[in-house]
Amino acid sequence: MTLPVITLLGRKDEPTDAVEEYCRYLGSALLAHEIEVQIRRVPWELHGWREALHGLKLQASHWRGRWVLVQYTALAWSARGFPFRFLHVLQILRAAGARIGIVFHDVEPFSSPRPVDRLRCRIQVLVMRRALQRCALSVFTVVPERLSWLNTVPPGAYFIPVGPNLPFPGTQSARSPAEIPVIGVFSITGGRQGFVETQTIIQAVRQASRRLGKLRLVVFGRHSELREEALRQGLSDCPVQLSVEGILEPAVVVSRFAECDVLLFVRKGISTRRSSAIAGIAAAVPMVACQDGETGPPVTDAGVILVDPGSPELLGDALVRVLSTPTLKEELAARSRAAYATHFSWSSIAAKYAAALRSDQV
Description:
This protein is of the alpha/beta class. It contains 12 helices and 12 strands. It has helices at about 20-30, 45, 50-60, 85-95, 115-135, 190-210, 230-235, 250-260, 275-280, 310-325, 325-345, 345-355; strands spanning about 5-10, 35-40, 65-70, 100-105, 135-140, 155-160, 180-185, 215-220, 240-245, 260-265, 285-290, 305.
């Protein structure tokens, strides 16, 4: 018997919405388990909260007994990261008799030393803790024991990593060596963090080029075009060919991964909730990445060389190791293929969701 499931999203992100893409790939994979997913939104940014919540009440009146998986990021449910109304959404679903699940894409609150950001952090923790009290099922995209705000793992909690929001084929073949080694960077964070990442990329690639000579740096994905000038200036005196392309069609992104000999990931620490990093694993491209408190299995089972943040010279050394050691490159690619098949493929992710949704414990 087919199990109907609603995935409920808040504000649509622009120019791309990774959470919506996640829900679409998940929905396609769940069809094999006789689970039919429908995507719905609470478009408060278009109509205001009063009208949006009224619209949700009308929709939810038909959802009694049905699973509704609410997708949580702080900015999907608030303009400035104060997601109080997320709890109102859960209250409406609960009153309608829906079975509530929450998928935590943001697993930690925003952090910053500014007083307003400290307040924002406390409110986000408060909202996430209260949300857990209102749901029957919770999905964490990072191992919950690693989270700073979660004192105990609640009943009905599951760890399910994200998958790649890209149309990768089932098996990635090894890439033939290129005349000029290619370093790939997929997406850069916006704002101040993006500036920090750009400087780290420049220093790491400069370090590698001093050892290896000619290199090609391919930067693509969200926000990358905003950093092209800084990248060109920072690498202007190095033998580095730079290509910056910004947002591309999914099939083109897959082909860009296939061109790379190694990927550089500096968007804070690599973890199981970062789809841009999981895409690199799915592509079976060796990766050099920063690590932090979220970094752990199963992402560490993949072909990733981990470096402590703030050490671009070590990132550069790791790039040199991969690019100058064919056996290491092959070993890392093989590890990523195995980790993808076991943990990060959409078929694996869908199997975990199916087990959770059909569990008697929820």
